[in-house]
Structure to design on (210 residues):
């Protein structure tokens, strides 16, 4: 995606954290800008080598992260009337949105999956996303029946003030098939009715199966 697309997505992330109003937000706070850069510090083992991007352009239909208790349908989302990413509505808080204007998971480039951290009344699909660690496995089911397996490389909390869109959406290494899972994080600002940061989990393709 180009620089214009980054700006659109930045605006989108600011918007879709603003609809949450009633849920008790006294969850563990995610503050600052943190990064777990490699798996060695958490597991004592190096992360696996990247797999070459998969051929074709197959949309995702589901995502599964066993370590985080995530198993969800993935639906394609575009831009709304304001030019922001049209994330799944809060009534579908257990659904993950795939930004159809970017890469498909498994193809070369950065594929983007977005989900709510909570709704008006309960935790949402990415409530546990901040617990991901380098080495966590993310499985994405694709429309052709294949499953693309990704390994988490970094977990970051990026403050919206001074937000760096290239850090959130740009490739970590050129030529790879990469995945971003993004939700709201930081502190819940009741006055603005939104979160102060975004949790950005970056992963890369390490396997595939049919």
């Amino acid at each position: 995606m180009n620089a214009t697309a980054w700006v659109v997505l930045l605006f989108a992330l600011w918007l879709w954290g603003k609809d949450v109003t009633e849920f008790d937000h006294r969850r563990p706070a995610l503050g600052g800008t943190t990064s777990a850069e490699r798996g060695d510090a958490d597991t004592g083992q190096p992360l696996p080598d990247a797999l070459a991007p998969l051929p074709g352009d197959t949309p995702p239909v589901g995502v599964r992260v066993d370590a985080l208790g995530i198993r969800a349908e993935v639906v394609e989302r575009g831009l709304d009337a304001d030019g922001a990413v049209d994330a799944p509505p809060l009534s579908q808080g257990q659904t993950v949105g795939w930004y159809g204007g970017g890469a498909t998971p498994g193809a070369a480039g950065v594929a983007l999956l977005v989900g709510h951290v909570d709704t008006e009344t309960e935790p949402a699909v990415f409530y546990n996303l901040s617990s991901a660690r380098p080495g966590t496995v993310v499985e994405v089911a694709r429309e052709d029946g294949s499953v693309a397996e990704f390994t988490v490389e970094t977990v970051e909390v990026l403050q919206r003030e001074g937000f760096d869109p290239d850090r959130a959406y740009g490739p970590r290494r050129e030529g790879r098939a990469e995945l971003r899972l993004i939700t709201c994080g930081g502190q819940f600002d009741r006055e603005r009715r939104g979160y102060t940061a975004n949790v950005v989990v970056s992963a890369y393709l390490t396997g595939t199966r049919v």
Summary: The chain has three helices and eight strands.
